[in-house]
Amino acid sequence: MDEKEFEELVKRCLSGQATEKEAALVDQWLNHRTEKDPFSRISESEKEEIGVKIFGDISSKIRGSGLIPGGKLNSNATSFYRAAAAIILLSALSYTIFVFTPHSATKEFKTVRSGSSPDAGKKVILGDGSIVWLKGNSSIQYPETFHGNERNVRLTGEGLFEVTRDPDHPFVIQCGGLIAKVLGTSFNIKSSETHIEVLVLTGKVALSSRGNSEGLILLPNEKAVYNEKQNQMAKVKAKENEKTAKTAGTEYSMRFHATVMKEIIRRIEGKFNVRVSLSDERLSNCTITADFTDQSLDRTLSMISQTLRIEYEIINDQVNLKGAGCDQNTKE
Q1: What is the pTM of this model?
Q2: What is the CATH number of the domain that holds 306?
Q3: How far apart are CA 124 and CA 129, in angstroms?
């Protein structure tokens, strides 16, 4: 039985048209779900939240089917009620939840995992140019190309985000029961079994959670801790060296002082996974003092082109810099 056939079967249960044998099939499926079943992978907190939101809808549908005489469940309606809850979860909420499950990820979302050791980090460049530095034993799920009004991803573990600014398409990260929403900024998220920590490096991050849509607003160098079990979040004081610790092992810092372009190009190639070619090799002699930290590839190149009065173009993973170079030891 495929998903469509199962949905039709549950609809017949809801309308009171299902046979006793068909109802038994639905009840058997609900009682013997495997780990491969997407419904079984929803956390208890998510089930609770969804249940609160759709309880009224489920109740009205079942009452309309005549399965609840006098507003109470009879013995034959129990399995029908459970089937109704399951199908609404599987169908009506498929976008908001199941796009982040491994089942959906194989179709629309890509999953990247880092190594299991603490220092086994991995860099992930998303379709919008945003960079995620996954820490050890972490994973991220994201679409190869973002669609719709928001850029949605899901994080498990810890990651340092450098989000490309796009005011028209907010970047939304789901980490357990916590939702972080930004336009363009850099911050670190770390989740554990008991809580989730968010440290903002630059920009502004709006945090919300189940039952707490107001949440908190974090500014640079501010930190919040979210207790998922108690559904509580609060600002806490960040340690002095915490920012340095979170960016260690990454190419996050792009601050240069009188640095030759040869070194800057090397850093750009390493951070953004591109190759840079020069129309004039003397461009590598030019020196720049600037801070490109938390800037996208396009913004970084734009700042360089304005400083050196040159042109640039990006073709896939190839960057071409065109313009007059500098004599050796000449500073711009």
Answers
A1: 0.64
A2: 3.55.50.30
A3: 10
